[in-house]
Input
Amino acid sequence: MRLFEEPMENNIFLTLLPILVSIFSVWFAYRANSINAELAQENFKNSLIDKLKNAKYMILQLEAKNYEHREKMLLIDTIMDHLLYQQNNQQKEKYLTALERNTLSNLQEEVEDNIGIFLSTNSGSEDNKNLAINAIKNYLKDL
Amino acid sequence: MERKKYNFAEEFTKNPGLRFRKLSEFSGEEFREEVLENFFKKDQKVIINVDGIESSLGSSFLSEAFGNIAVKYGKDKFMDIIQIDTSSDIGYVTNEEMLKRVDEAIRRANGK
Output
């Protein structure tokens, strides 16, 4: 009897082997993609955190003085670059939640309004600088 | 009526300002009151070309100018009158951002 059973088992194993290899390959590719996606999300968020910290530092460095219009707007534009304003839209869509995207959008407006007020008044209210910095800190906490 | 072409950098400024007139020249408030309102009053369709700007149309500018006028006249009317020329990269991203700020302004106005 065994003489007939063994080759049959071997046949079944040989038939299943390519299927098992295929399943494993698909699973492996899926896991590799998942890990890559997780890494890409982590990289994007880390880069966003770094940029937000730079924006905070730039705001801290701002001086109250009489700015020419162009100078003021280019300065604000540079800070807004660090808040990813009009940038990386595809990554924001992919790696941030809807809530994180909306909060970032509100943050951009809040920071722009407050540093705008700070740079537009000769005395430059430190309160507005602090409001902008605190808004960034709060966003960083929730990210 | 033919859609009017409006060159933002040449006819308004290369450096759009902040939200309110009291904060800067070329503000969103000024653009809404002096430029956009006229298009709506005359029912003049317009395509705005933003090529040539030096600093971007900021979030507060877009919200104040385009967001508020969309709230005043309604989204459908707004979309009928206002277009941003998306044939360049800067036009494309400005249009995306403008539409986002318009939707946010409408949501805020509706208390959502």
Summary: Residues 118 and 124 of chain A are 4 Å apart (CA to CA). The radius of gyration of chain A is 27 Å.
